[in-house]
Structures are given as structure tokens and as C-alpha cells.
Amino acid sequence: MITIVQTLRLWFAPQRIGEEGETPDYRFSLANERTFLAWIRTSLALVGGGFAVDQFLPDLRWGVRVALALALLGAGVLCALRAVNHWVRCERAMRRGEDLPVSRFPTLLSLAVAVVAVVMVVVVVFGWAG
Prior knowledge:
mainly alpha, 4 helices, single chain
């Protein structure tokens, strides 16, 4: 069982992953990297959305605006952290010949974005101006 400290070390010293198991087909490693980059793009979009809500919707009630912005910013932070963690876990699993790890994070992220979207629909429909 890998500890949190060991995982964090791999985030900052990915060459250590090369010390485990056998080198997988480079196409799988490149696909893993593309997936990482997709998660990072999603994270950047969420952070951008959080700033957009805060900066471009000044007429919203302060609490609603801040809650929506923080929800998007928080999702962006979690998504970025999840990206690197998932990359490391998948790379290790491929080198060890293990099944790729599964996660509930995509479901949680989808639910968080859906909740923010529903709140935004309510705001647009009912016009919660400050």
C-alpha cells in the first residue's frame, strides 16, 4: 500500500516511477499524459469560470456570487490536484502490469458542476440581483 507521502514524492520526482516494474508501451504513457492535460484544461476552465462569475456578475447578491465563484474555484483546485495524482497512479499501474485505478472523482466533479449550473439557471430565471 502506497502512503500519501510516497505519492506526493512521486508528484515531484516522477523519475522514481521508472524504478518500478517494466516500461509500458510509450503509446500508453502518452495517452496517460494526454488525459492529464485534459484534466488540467478542465481545471483551468473551472478556475476561469469562478473568476468570471465573481468579476462579471456584480449585480448578483454577494453571497450567491461568492458561493458560485468559490464552488467553481474549489472544483478547479481539486481537479488540478486530481490530475497529477491520477497520472502518477496510472503510470505506476501500467509499469506494474496492474489494472488501472478507478475513481469516484469524475462523478463528484460532474455533480458539483451540475449543482452550480442549476443554481445559475435559477439565478437567470429568477434574477437574484443584489
